[in-house]
Amino acid sequence: MKLVFHIMCLSVVCLCGCVQPTRTTGFFQQQQRPALPDSIPHRVAVFISGKPALAGQAAELFSTGLTELGFDVVERNKISVLKDEIELGTEGYVTPETALAKGNFAGADGIFVGSASGERSVAWTDTHLALRLVQAKTGKTIWSVNANDPRMFGLSMAEETSIIYTTKAAINALKKDIQKLR
Length: 182
Description:
By secondary structure, this protein is of the alpha/beta class. The protein has helices at 2-18, 52-69, 76-90, 96-105, 159-181, and strands spanning 43-50, 72-73, 110-120, 125-135, 141-151. The chain has a single domain (41-181), classed as TolB, N-terminal domain (Rossmann fold, 3-Layer(aba) Sandwich).
């Protein structure tokens, strides 16, 4: 019994040298992000309408991509207030200026607005993501993209898969345009 105990202890000691400690960044530690050019709004909100499943997935993926590019994305709980204002604006109850003022009130310097859609047949699937970056104070569109991901036989035919690649194409287009400004 003692021999088994000593062998186990010796194994633990030997294996401890093989294991490298993991480095945690900490929950509250600020991430190092690349600096954005001053001409681009740094704190943004994302509003993507369209098919609910596609729009929600695209908004989530696009927000994550924006964070990786150095943007500070307004939290979802503040976005619901902005979304309500934008929806009222599309129904004619609120002017675009009022909606933009609300966006500025929530702390967003810019708002990515757009729509996600998808089309599908037996032979193909195609998703589209049309986005614009609008300055919250002025209402001026300063960037836009129309991304899509046509898929034919052999590739995944699910719109939910296609929107992933469509969103990645939109993020890559934004990344290239930001690099041109640096």
